[in-house]
Design goal:
heterodimer, A: 483 residues, alpha+beta, Arc Repressor Mutant, subunit A, 3 domains, 18 strands, 40% helix, B: 99 residues, mainly alpha, Histone, subunit A, two-stranded antiparallel ribbon, 3 strands, 9% strand
């Protein structure tokens, strides 16, 4: 009998606000310890939190982007637990009336023919504050506490248990990661902890009620997310098949061993004694405000993907790759604008293959590309109109990357790369190649097709790659057939 | 509704309060006294009244997203840490907490 895997994700996204959610301290990463911890973040007696408008804006935008209900009225609650990096002894969060309710995210799972689309429902997304950091290196047997992160605005995004494999969970996490960066509410930097996932995992027989779940905490890379879920589901299935049982628990993933292990004892752990925070009045979000955010929202990934398919004739796969980030999508469209709409497919190839490879090799972001979209569009245009071949295009691209000219035309002129289309000139080169390679000629006539390619190669070599390949092929065929 | 001695001990543990058995008895008696007041409140017919999360009839004021607290040289931090039980390299030191 088979098992069905059930996964729901809770994702903590650090919002891209300059200041904290309830204080005016900076949220910049990497400052000296505790220099961005204000009296409010330290929970000194008598201080009062004041809500950051920017954080609310981020939440509204997210709600609109996932077609959720943005609550007109929401409230903040205190969630109590003891830990030294939580100075107040409670975290300000939202419980009964979160700002974002419902919504969904459509994801693409897998690649190529086996890929499929799936809708993942969202339960909610709520505003809350981040905790500080505990450092456990040796301080004479003590722990060090840095409260710079304490009070950083978070949007916790909770999905329904709609995912059925580690692959789907990763696809959802990636789609969410793309979206929060796309709408500018989170920088998505996973190394710095801006985007962290908790995975709730359980297994059941198909059709049975939900099994006991275990929550894997703090997964800060897509690879760890996948490995942790795969290990956890294997462990749960093996335990149950051996006739064992396990309790609901919170577990940690150890990247070094690839294993999960139980963390807290369940007793008392989830008794957070929530109650409405008397320091904060309820939050009112007007219809006008929501309307303004809706207007400011960029075209979203799913809509752009559809438009790339219908307007430019791209495949669903290409469209998905080009909408992996807003920067990439914008680059592609700017390149198309600098050429012609008919060149869209060629532009897509150049962005996805040549540009992407170059960026990867130099470990650069697309915003740091040494060839801008207008330059690439100009280059593609010269391939489209036959001025240069695709192979010469790669040389032009390299030269542009090295800063040897301001546009493709300048490089083509400077290096004399214009394609030879004069049939008289090509005919001369073909004749030379035929007389210089009698062996290849006789091999071809004996039926060896490879010999033909060798002859094309000789002509192209003599032309320094600039002869129009189609013309060369045609002329060679004619000459060999007649001679 | 009334609280039992076991529940009092549980709440005390959650709140990290150390209380003696005699104090548990006192707390139980006192808290149950408060509950009787709450029962009186709950007897009021509130049908059709929207629940409130705050006693004031007002909405949360918002502040602009601006950095208004600065301590780049750590002067405020050092002052605060001078009254902390223990600190080193700009960090507050606490008894080791790791699971």
């Amino acid at each position: 009998m088979t098992w069905e895997i059930v996964i729901g994700l809770e994702t903590h996204t650090q919002l891209a606000t300059k200041s904290k959610i309830f204080s005016g301290a900076s949220t910049a990463f990497g400052a000296a310890a505790n220099t961005q911890a204000s009296l409010i973040d330290l929970a000194l007696p008598g201080v009062l939190p004041v809500l950051n408008k920017g954080a609310v804006e981020c939440a509204i935008r997210f709600g609109l982007a996932v077609e959720a209900t943005v609550a007109e009225k929401s409230a903040f609650a205190r969630k109590h637990y003891f830990y030294p990096d939580l100075p107040k002894g409670y975290q300000i969060s939202q419980l009964e009336s979160p700002i974002v309710q419902g919504g969904h995210l459509d994801i693409m799972v897998g690649q190529g023919e086996k890929s499929y689309e799936k809708r993942i429902r969202l339960t909610r997304a709520h505003l809350e504050e981040d905790a500080g950091k505990s450092l456990h290196e040796d301080f004479h047997g003590k722990s060090g506490i840095d409260l710079n992160r304490a009070g950083t605005a978070l949007l916790e995004i909770v999905s329904e248990p709609d995912m059925r494999s580690a692959e789907e969970a990763v696809a959802y996490a990636k789609a969410l990661h793309t979206l929060v960066r796309w709408i500018g509410i989170c920088d998505g930097n996973m190394q710095e902890g801006s985007f962290r996932c908790d995975a709730n995992v359980s297994v059941r027989r198909p059709g049975a009620p939900l099994g006991t779940r275990r929550e894997i905490k703090n997964l800060n890379s897509f690879r760890y997310l996948k490995e942790a879920i795969e290990f956890e589901t294997r462990w749960q299935i093996e335990t149950l098949e051996d006739g064992g049982q396990f309790e609901q628990a919170t577990v940690l993933f150890d990247p070094a061993t690839g294993e999960t292990r139980a963390m807290r004892s369940k007793e008392d752990a989830h008794d957070y004694r929530y109650f409405p925070d008397p320091d904060l009045l309820p939050l009112l979000v007007s219809a006008d405000w929501i309307e303004r955010e809706q207007t400011a929202l960029p075209e979203l990934p799913a809509a752009k993907r559809q438009r790339f398919i219908s307007d430019y004739g791209l495949s669903a796969y290409d469209a998905a790759i080009l909408t992996a980030s807003l920067e990439m999508a914008d680059y592609f469209e700017a390149a198309v604008r600098a050429s012609i709409p008919a060149a869209a497919k060629l532009c897509a190839n150049w962005v996805m293959v040549d540009l992407a490879a170059r960026l990867k090799r130099e470990d650069r972001e697309i915003s740091e590309a040494a060839v801008n979209a207008t330059q690439l569009g100009g280059l593609v245009m010269r391939i489209m109109d036959g001025t240069i071949s695709n192979a010469i295009g790669k040389k032009v691209f390299d030269a542009l990357w090295a800063g040897e000219g301001s546009d493709a035309d300048e490089i083509i002129e400077k290096h004399g790369l214009r394609q030879i289309t004069d049939s008289g000139a090509i005919e001369g080169l073909v004749d030379e190649a035929l007389s210089a390679n009698p062996v290849s000629v006789s091999e071809y006539k004996a039926g060896k097709e490879k010999a033909f390619n060798a002859l094309v190669g000789q002509v192209m070599k003599a032309a320094k790659g600039k002869a129009n390949p189609q013309q060369v092929t045609e002329l060679l065929r004619q000459k060999l057939a007649s001679g | 509704m009334s609280l039992t001695l076991l529940e009092i001990e549980h709440i005390a543990r959650l709140a990290r309060l150390e209380i003696t058995p005699a104090e548990v008895e006192t707390a139980c008696w006192q808290l149950n006294g408060i509950f009787s007041l709450i029962e009186a409140l709950q007897a009021v017919d509130t049908a059709g009244i929207e629940p409130k999360t705050h006693v004031h009839d007002a909405w949360q004021r918002l502040r602009a997203d601006e950095v208004t607290y600065r301590d780049e040289d750590g002067a405020v931090r050092d002052l605060l840490q001078s009254i902390a039980p223990d600190a080193e390299n700009g960090l507050y030191l606490v008894p080791k907490v790791i699971e």
